[in-house]
Design goal:
Elements (H helix, E strand, L loop, with lengths): L5 H11 L17 H16 L3 E4 L5 E5 L7 E7 L12 H16 L8 E6 L12 H7 L4 H6 L8 H7 L17 E9 L4 H5 L3 E7 L1 E10 L3 E2 L11 H18 L6 E10 L5 E2 L2 E10 L2 H22 L2 E9 L3 E2 L2 H14 L3 E6 L4 H5 L5 E6 L15 H18 L16
Parallel strand pairs: 3-4, 3-5, 5-15, 6-14
Antiparallel strand pairs: 1-2, 2-4, 6-13, 6-15, 7-11, 7-12, 8-10, 9-11
Helix pairs in contact: 1-3, 3-12, 8-9, 10-12
The structure holds zinc ion.
The site of zinc ion has 5 residues, from loops.
């Protein structure tokens, strides 16, 4: 293994995605399922082949470590191998394969680094099974509580703790997965963009500057169900008409903050009783507001809450809201971004700054270490779908950029290899 191997990346991609493959050509490897476990075991086998020192933490996150001249702190890179139901073959997987490829090249060339290198495979990144995303990295950052493992459950009523126990993991040892800030020198995650920015720009490497974060509310509007023919207009408490005003208020609030990159959506609306001849008495709606700017997001939320209060008063309906999610946007480390830009230039790949609209494990690692992310182009921006696709040449470019990024972050010693050998198909 003398160079980044495109063929090897492809071979591993195919092999890993045989696990949980669906008839539609996607994959189903839910968090803490047997399929995810099998994929993690395959990564473990590859780590051993690279001579990495392998360990599992208490929530099942997998680490493969290559020692440096110092004991630590380590430069960590990786992503996840779980998926949504019938999801794509690149989300998460690409970050793990690039990490194995880049760290494997250090091993194959016997390159000495000052700091240790670690490949990580985080567990249960997707929220589709338990309703909460990034469980593995939350545990590492210390932002998951043991009670959460017993509270969160899947559609069959299986709790995270039960799913973990079925894999031989011990939920009560959750705290042992936590890493101290001093133990991680930097974290870098490669991920497919899941959007069209890079594709449209014809640019292979996105250097992520911020990760946007959502605030979500479940809102209930209670009016009065009544006969649509017999109830005069001035006697109505129409829950849907009130909800419609809230939908528009969300749109307006987000539009007013658009310059800060804030977006707002009402994507769910349940109307009851839901008959042509009955005035809607009850509406449930879901509001999702996202931004990379925490202050802007707060302003949008305040406006929406004020509009709800005003609507309730004016229309005589009752509006209650439940805060489901409220996360802070993350600004990624300028230092790590600088190393990624240097690496892209060193490898001869064009790069551009980009924002992550979706959450990632990097979000939690950023709480304990300087963190950066590299995005690779997604064809047509399609993700969480069997049609998800990233060109394997772009994946290889990502691995190459990651190699040089690690070179800098871990302070590789001696002469830089003259070049990474050209990619071989
Ligand atoms: Zn992902």
């Amino acid at each position: 293994m003398a160079a980044i191997g495109t063929a090897r990346l492809l071979k591993r991609l195919v092999e890993l995605n045989r696990i949980g493959e669906t008839v539609e050509g996607g994959v189903t490897r839910l968090g803490f399922s047997q399929e995810e476990e099998a994929a993690v075991r395959l990564c473990e086998q590859w780590m051993r082949e690279l001579g990495l020192v392998v360990r599992r933490d208490s929530v099942g996150n997998l680490y493969g470590r290559r020692p440096g001249r110092r004991e630590g702190p380590a430069v960590v890179t990786g992503s996840h191998v779980d998926s949504v139901p019938n999801g794509g073959k690149y989300d998460g997987v690409v970050g793990v394969l690039c990490a194995l490829e880049a760290v494997g090249l250090f091993a194959a060339r016997n390159i000495v680094t000052e700091y240790p290198l670690e490949v990580v495979v985080f567990r249960c990144e997707e929220s589709s099974r338990f309703g909460v995303a990034t469980l593995g990295s939350r545990a590492v950052a210390g932002s998951l509580r043991e009670e959460d493992l017993h509270r969160l459950c899947d559609a069959d009523g299986v709790t995270v703790a039960q799913a973990m126990a079925a894999l031989g993991l011990e939920p009560r040892r959750l705290a042992e997965a936590r890493r101290s800030p001093g133990s991680v020198r930097a974290f870098v995650e490669i991920h497919v963009e899941q959007g069209t920015v890079l594709e449209r720009a014809g640019c292979p490497i996105g250097v992520v500057t911020h990760i946007a974060a959502p605030t979500r509310y479940q809102v209930r509007v209670s009016g009065e169900a009544a006969h649509s023919g017999a109830t005069p207009m001035n006697r109505r408490k129409d829950a849907l008409a009130a909800a419609a005003e809230i939908v528009l208020a969300v749109e307006r609030a987000a539009q007013d903050e658009a310059a800060c990159g804030t977006v707002g959506t009402v994507g769910v609306l349940t109307v009851k009783p839901g008959a042509m001849n009955v005035i809607p008495g009850d509406v449930e709606m879901g509001i999702d507001i996202r931004s990379i700017d925490g202050e802007s997001k707060k302003r949008a939320v305040q406006r929406i809450l004020a509009a709800m209060e005003e609507t309730a008063l004016r229309r005589g309906v009752k509006i209650t809201e439940k805060l489901l999610v409220d996360e802070e946007p993350v600004a990624l480390s300028p230092w790590v971004q600088e190393q990624i830009r240097w690496a892209a230039e060193r490898a001869g790949h064009r790069h551009m700054p980009i924002v992550s609209a979706a959450g990632h494990d990097a979000m939690h690692m950023a709480r304990i270490a300087p963190t950066g992310m590299v995005f690779l182009p997604s064809r047509d921006g399609v993700s969480h779908n069997p049609l998800e696709y990233t060109d394997i040449e772009d994946v290889a470019a990502g691995a190459e950029v990651l190699f040089w990024t690690l070179w800098r972050l871990a302070e590789a010693q001696g002469e830089a290899p003259l070049e990474v050998e050209p990619l071989t198909a």
